[in-house]
Amino acid sequence: MLDLSGFDYAVVALCAVMVGITKTGLPGLLILVVPLMASVLPARISVGVLLGILILADLFAASYYRHQALWRHVFRLLPLTLAGIIVGYFGLRAVNDEQLKPIIGIIVLVLLGLNYWRTAVGGEERPVPSQWWFAAGAGFMVGVMTMLANAAGPIIVIYLLSMRLPKLQFVGTTAWYFFIINWLKVPFSANLGLMTIESVKLDLMMLPLVVVGAIVGIFILKRIPLKIFNLVVQILAALAAIKLLF
Q1: Which of 41, 72, 87, 104 is most exposed, with the fewest beta carbons within 10 Å of its own?
Q2: How far apart are CA 42 and CA 154, in angstroms?
Q3: Any idea what the Cα angle at residue 193 is, between residues 190 and 196, rounded to 5°?
Q4: What pTM does this model have?
């Protein structure tokens, strides 16, 4: 088993609950999980452990929204996403833990900035490109970001918003898309030593907390002021990401 303190286990447990919540109800929460995990685990191991927890949560999200996915959008993104995963794989081969921590921090800050641009400059309905090259670029960047740090959520949000999907189809398409690409990442992560027997054991220990988070996410989605929640999450994520830089 990984050599973790009680505090480290508590943070990983909190992250497992938040992953469950983000998969079924509040997608903005994941941007905080990424830097939190990297703050208590070696950066490379944190990527593998988080991937395992995401896969467990994906099982619930994909099942709950099993009739809502629009597969044409999933298949449109997948080829370039796989190319991005391969690029991210070679990127991870070239860096160590000390180099990866600030990279994760920078990725989170860039994605937060991208999300701010989407929501603050022109509002939630700001038009974005919907041509084929936009889908290709979005798919590729999702692949790179998700392989490097499991932090591609804001990119897919921007892309799917441009497709003007209804709410349930938006969530269902996202759930199934990440269900597929997270499994595609497993052999690459195992080859890099990011996912090990020890990391999988830790993931399975967190399964009950993922279930709790998934149930909580379903019930609180309509009961919380979403704009205030997203603002708090983004501020906390920015602070956690800045911590990784120093």
Answers
A1: 72
A2: 24
A3: 70
A4: 0.83
